[in-house]
Each structure stands twice: as C-alpha cells, then as structure tokens.
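[Meeting: bench + compute handoff]

Bench side (C.D.) handed over the final construct sequence. Compute side (W.E.) agreed to return the predicted structure before the next meeting so the bench team could plan truncations. Sequence as handed over:
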Amino acid sequence: TSELIKYAGNGFLAMKITFINEIADLCEKVGADVQQVAKGIGLDGRIGSKFLNPGPGYGGSCFPKDTLALVRTAQQYEAPVRLIETTVEVNDARKLRMAEKVRDAMGGDVSGRTVAVLGLTFKPNTDDMRDSPSLAIIPALQAMGASIRAFDPEGMEEARRLLDGVAFTDSAYQAAEGADALVILTEWDQFRALDLGRIKGLMNRALMVDLRNVYRPHEARDDGFDYVGVGKP
C-alpha cells in the first residue's frame, strides 16, 4: 500500500502535467490561452491549480522513474494502467515535439543556424539534469543541423558531461550573441528579468520561443521580438 501511494501519487501528478500540455496544443489550434484555461479549471476545488503549468514535458528523478515503475508493476501483475502508459508515451514524444516547435518558429529549417538555449536543468533552483527535457530537445535540434549555445545558472557542470557539441556560455547574454532564436527551457528567476533590448541587440534575429511562458507575449513583442509561447493563440 505504501509503495503504491508513492507511485500512484507521482503518476497522477505526471498525468496532470501531461494533460495540460495536450490542452496547450489544442489551445494553439483553436485560439485559446492555456494559462487562462488552467486558471479557470484550477478554480474547481476538485482539480486545484497546482501542476497545471504547460511546458516541454516533465523530467527529474521522481516522475519518470515512478511512472515507469507503476507501469511495469501493473504489467507484471496483469492489471495494466493504460492512462499512465499513455502519459509516459505522450511525455516522451512531447520533448521531441518541442524541438519541432523551435524549428517551425524558425521557418521550418534550422540547418546552419544558431539557437541560444536558456535553462538546462529539469526545473529551476537545482543542478539536477536527470531526464531533463533539454537532453532530448538539444540533440534533436542538433540532428536538424542547428548549432547550440547554452547557459544554465546551476546545471552547466553536469550538462557538459551529458551534452556533446554545445557551446556553453557564462551568461544568458553571451548565449544570445549571434543567435537566430532564443529558447527558454527552464523558468529560472533570472530569465524573467532579462534586458530584452540588450538581448535583441546581440541576436541575428529577435525570435523568442518561450517553452515555459515566462514572458507575456505583448511584453516580448513590445521589445521587438517575434514571440512563440506554449498554448498561446
């Protein structure tokens, strides 16, 4: 019972994250704002507002491990948990889809272009790189022909061991130098307070792909950026 409490709890939260990520995709198609949708459904006490922030998929040490453990335990005892199986599959596919989202924002081709990635850890305020979306998104962009410049406040040492061919920089501004797109992968507080005018001046093209919805679209656009968020009309 205690083992299943842990697995089922994390499985449910992972499913909740994956649910809002799929709703975000639908919002983009129909012209809705996923943050308003999340706020609206979060007002229902049966649902609650936590774990309804769309992004590039969950990572870390708990959700990937515990969802797989729950799936395998259920299969072993012939009581499959189809919802969690699908959650795992959708989350894995989402990380690759985010690389495609960056490619699409850049006109459908990233070959020979430079992408500045801000944030490498799976969440802010940690150096934990385990199952971070960056470990899937960056290699996918590289496979498409992109050059990657990256910065993370805490995860650089571990990232150097796990990611090949990346130009690691000392700041967000250094990462932006000569970039054709700026991609926010982790919602570190320091990325919420960037001097966007300075960033724009350093880039080849002022394109921001904000996979954590750190910025409001009109704020980025007022600073001269082409802005692409998650679940935004």
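W.E. noted at the follow-up: The first helix runs from residue 2 to 30. C.D. will use this when planning the next construct.
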